[in-house]
Amino acid sequence: MIASNNINKMAKELVITIDSIFEGQSPSSNFAQEGQFLSSVAIDPEASNTDVATDLKPSGIIRPVAYEKFSDTILDQVPLWIITTPKDTTIYVYGNAGDLITYDSDLANETLLRGVATSKGNGAAYYNNYLYYVRNADIGRYGPLDDTPGFTDDFWTSTLGLAALTNTTYPTTRHSVEFPNHVMKSHVDNKLYFIDVHNGQGILSAIKTTKTTYQGDTDDGSAYNVLDFPFDFKPMCIESYGENLACGCSFGTSSTVNQGASALFIWDTGVSVGGVYTFNRIVNIPDQIVTALRYQNGILYGWSGNLSGGTRFWVYLGGDSIQTLKYIPDAIPPLPGAIEADANRITWGGFTVYPIASASVFAFGSKSDLFPRGLHNIAKTTVTASATNGIVTALKNAIQSNKPHPNLIIGSTDGTKTQLDKRSTTYQTSVFRSRPFEIGRPFTIDRIRIPFVQAIAVNMTVTPKLYFDNEADDSTGTIINNTHYPSSEKFVILGHEDFSNKTSGSNSFFLELTTSGTTLSAVGLPIEIELTVEDKD
Q1: How confident is the model over 266-282, as a mean pLDDT?
Q2: According to a count of CB atoms within 10 Å of the terminal CB, is the N or C end of the chain lower?
Q3: pLDDT tens-digit profile of 123-160?
Q4: How many degrees, rounded to 5, is the angle at CA 332 between CA 331 and CA 338?
């Protein structure tokens, strides 16, 4: 909000107020709506004011969020799938070199359950009392989970006696992490479907089991190649869409040449023509690659883009139409195991290069849907990221204790290290950049008032910085910490003398706040910025 008072014929005073960030990140680098901001990393207005267990309501403020590594020494490959089951409280992690690793419900006791041979983490899912894991050319399973579980590594080809899968080379994201080529989905018709490519043609196959002694122990009509896709369309992801099955297929795999648009295929699994199943709708997607789908609360969401950068987050409207909800120009669409939902809030893993490099998590909307549905970057892992490395590869909303406090399990890699992170109360770096304020003429910032939820104390550190005229100039302010503000202040006022450089610009500016102390430093709202603006050229 901007208010003004005339001082004289040559200058006027403006007061700019930042009083909400719920509208999320703005799509433009120069313009934003009220409540939007330029960018952020690891800032979540959905988090409560404090880390106290009884503090439950969303804060709505500039709230840093911290995560920490919990995987120990066994996880040494990129986690692609994090799976929970209704039969136990074990958390299963399947990596891109075939390791199946488990953790207990408090994310301790890391155990190598199985080193699966000839596997690159091609796909995994829980279905009918068994954990299914896909290898390069076969499917194994672990179970029955409600009795004494065991492994059958060649369940698909030996137990079921069905044709071997094809280990087709799929596109890669950062660090040459390959998109899984046999993504699985348990559907409402009590079948477990998975994608494959046979003789250059994308197909779907299905596992169906019933009970003889244990739930899911007996084959009940599993079948190879139940549905064909058109040639040149490579299936990348599948998801339930009510009684239908939705499949995202990409057209081409090049990171340098646009080879054609991808598509969303809709299939009514219960309808066949002459005993032959075929998809009943194809929806063109205006991007080369579509990598993930999520059906939540009756809505089908999708992620698409290209391999050199650019992520479109969209919703299927029905018929032949999708609607873009958000577009992130400097990101690659997420891996299919790196998407999640918490009630009405959709989250996905990726990375940032602006305003800082990170392997981090984006979120759209709110759990309650009572707040504006903005785009936020709500968490980052502790891997060392740079402009060219760091990415979140797996995501799971598995921790139920104190549910109002978001607590994701996040798998990530920086190209050398791989790890899993969980919510922490030891804070690292979070960054918030306000919306750009287009003044349109020379101006000077006279005073900034910043409120805090926590009184300034030891290990609280916030660095203010001003950027002017599309980042042509900048000026760093006095670090807000217990050394410079030792009187337990709950708000800080910054003037000209508190900045290292000028506080004037020609056309525009924005405010950056970087929190880097190990203790929570939640910045309250409103932030008030007083300016003097030249009234005439």
Answers
A1: 77
A2: C
A3: 999 999 999 999 999 999 999 999 999 999 999 999 99
A4: 105
pLDDT value at 53 more than 90 = no
Q: Tell me the CA distances in angstroms from 393 to 11, 16, 112, one per residue in order.
A: 53, 40, 19
- Check if the beta carbon of residue 264 is closer than 8 Å to that of residue 290: yes
- Select the more confidently predicted residue: 494 or 501: 494
Q: Which residues contact 217 (CB under 8 A, 6 or more apart)?
A: 129, 144, 209, 211
**Contact assessment for residue 453 and residue 510, using Cβ atoms and an 8 Å cutoff:** no
pLDDT at residue 76, as a whole number? 96
Q: What is the pTM of this model?
A: 0.95
Looking at residue 39, its amino acid is S
Distance of CA 323 to the CA centre of its chain: 19
The side-by-side arrangement of strands in the sheet containing 281-285 is 233-241, 244-251, 262-268, 281-285
As a CATH number, domain 66-426 is 2.130.10.10
**Angle, CA 238 vertex, CA 96 and CA 178 arms, to 5°:** 25
Question: Which pLDDT score is estimated for 404?
Answer: 63
Question: What confidence score (pLDDT) does residue 278 get?
Answer: 79
Q: Is the pLDDT of residue 371 over 90?
A: no
Neighbouring-strand partners of residue 281: 266
Residue 536 predicted with pLDDT over 70: no
pLDDT for 8: 42
Domain ranges for the chain: 2-37+431-534, 66-426
Residue in this structure with the two tokens 């217990």, named with its chain if needed? 482
CA angle centred on 19, ends 353 and 470, rounded to 5°:
40
Q: Let me know: does 385 contact 357? Beta carbons within 8 Å.
A: yes
How distant, in Å, are the alpha carbons of 411, 480, 512 from that of 339?
11, 36, 29
d(CA 519, CA 505): 34
Q: How far is the CA of 100 from the CAs of 110, 120, 213, 308, in angstroms?
A: 11, 11, 26, 31
Contacts of 129 (CB under 8 A, 6+ apart): 87, 143, 144, 145, 146, 214, 215, 216, 217
3-class DSSP assignment, residue 366: coil
Q: What does the block give as tokens for 530?
A: 């007083």
Cα 413 to Cα 415: distance, rounded to the nearest angstrom: 5
Mention every residue, 6+ apart, whose C-beta is less than 8 A from residue 489: 452, 455, 456
- Residue range 420-443, pLDDT digits in tens: 999 999 999 999 999 999 999 999
Say which CATH topology domain 2-37+431-534 has: Jelly Rolls (2.60.120)
Q: Is the peptide bond before 526 cis (omega within 30 degrees of 0)?
A: yes
- CA 385 to CA 305: how far, in whole Å? 22
Q: Is the pLDDT of residue 6 over 50?
A: no
The answer to which of 116-125, 263-272, 304-313, 377-386 has the lowest mean pLDDT is 263-272
Name the token pair of 44. 């979540």
The Cα 244–Cα 267 span in angstroms is: 5
What is the rounded average pLDDT of the residues 76-92? 97
